[in-house]
Known about the structure:
Blueprint: H1 3-37, H2 45-48, H3 50-83, H4 91-101, H5 104-115, H6 120-124, H7 138-162, H8 166-174, H9 179-208, H10 211-219, H11 225-234, H12 240-267, H13 287-318, H14 334-339, H15 345-374, H16 382-394, H17 397-410, H18 421-444, H19 449-457, H20 462-491, H21 494-499, H22 507-517, H23 520-546
Subcellular location: Cell inner membrane; Cell membrane
Membrane topology: Multi-pass membrane protein
Keywords: Cell inner membrane, Cell membrane, Membrane, Transmembrane, Transmembrane helix, Transport
Amino acid sequence: MSTKQSKNNNLFYGIISGVFFFFIVLPILVIFKEALDAGGLGDLSNFLNTNTLKSIRNSLSLGVLVVLATTMLSAPLAYLLAKTPLSKYKWIDIVLLIPFMTPPYIASMGWILFFQKKGLLEQLVPISATFNSYFFSLGGLVLVMSLHLCPFMTTILKNALLNIGDNLEDSAAVAGAGFYQRIVKIYVPLLLGNYAIAALLVFVKTLSEYGTPATLGARIGFEVFTTDIHRYATMSPIDFGKAATLSSALVSICLVMWLVQSYITNKRSYNLVGGRSKASGAVVGNKSSIVVVGWLYLGGIIFCGVGIPYFSVLATSLIKLRGYGIAIDNFTFAHYQELFVAGSAGLSAIVTSVFLACSAATIASILGFLTVIVLQKKSKFKKLIESEVLLPEMIPNIVLVIGLMILWNKLYSYWPIYNTLGFMVLVYTLMFLPYAYQYTYSGYMQLSNNLFEAARMSGASSLQILQKITLPLLLKSIMTGWMMIFIIVFRELVAASLISPPNTLTVSTYIVSEFSQGSVSLGMSMAFICVIISTTVLLFLNRFQRKR
């Protein structure tokens, strides 16, 4: 390559890096500048006041408790799905993903409706009224968030267990080691690195979560980072300085956690070789007893993670008059019909959410594909561009949204897109660009260079290779990313509640609005449609990926 071509390439990559810097990195820097201007970072009194300290303490304690509770739920489940006869039932993996794919705020509303006074559980089991109130506590909040994150940690631990050959456990059993000795001496040391990664990610996800603290946490007066940031940015008097101060603290903690996770991944993880493990029978008791115990435990997890919230949402959506409770003659589909009446707020919210989801998913998928293609050429800007593209994945969504709000509010006189649907599309595109990039990049890494070399030898131009080889082979990866982005944007809450234009509702803000204003059945009708769409897309994605 000539010096002139090299300079042109560097200029091209520099421009791309500058564009991503403006749209992704600059909003984060604006948050820190806003915090400095407000005295938030330079004056410790802003962090030492009672409300801020309480928010920080609540967030960190909630993160630790959710990690511990998620571990208690996930560790036995991962072992059952990797080292016992339950591992042959592939449908279990799909069912266990449902709680993770269910919007947390909808699951929280389901739990609230189930345990509240005169709620569904009390109607079904009147004696439960004596202990229902115990759910509305920090313990209940931890339980709901742990059930949501349980599939995430379970998947990481299960995949690690599958890479541990059964010969290790069999040898220990032959040597006389009991079940608990084998767990402590074999599995705990080998899984420590993977568990540390999973625990750190669960901790970060807990700190970043808004939906559950905003619904269930608000009922018990438990304020955390995200709810305080949201309150400062939306409730009068609006204080972007305090929102930026808390955001800067939150993003700093999350980035430190990501650095620790990266260190553990590179330095403290074992490379376990031995192929996919099969159940060997080297478990406590005989196979029939472990299967019975396993099914009971799995049933309990599914009942709590899927059964309770889905039953609550569905039952409430069908109730005609809440005062009459659960009764056959008190069920109606009128709430669902009302959602689709022409000109109704519900139909408008659905149309708006579909437009936002389609637009953001399409733009992000195109940008992700082009970025992957462009970064295949060597450049000193390659690592920088990749880091910029993946940055939104490493910081809480609410922080990125706050940064974009502050930045584009300052730029309003030059480019007045703030407070419009176009701005919402921009925000969602930037938030989920990492999804599109990673799915496309994963697919590209599976392509052999021989394909491209053969095409070049046949005289194909770069554009022809892109059209005839690269794009067709990557289409499934691109569509997988598109569907994931679509379903997440369709039901996303935090950005919609912060940046929706006046008198504009999305599916998520409609649900929250109806739930908080008393039209619970109408809100749960929309929520049930939302979770059914999420589950359907999850099943379709699973089948789509199996065919790849």
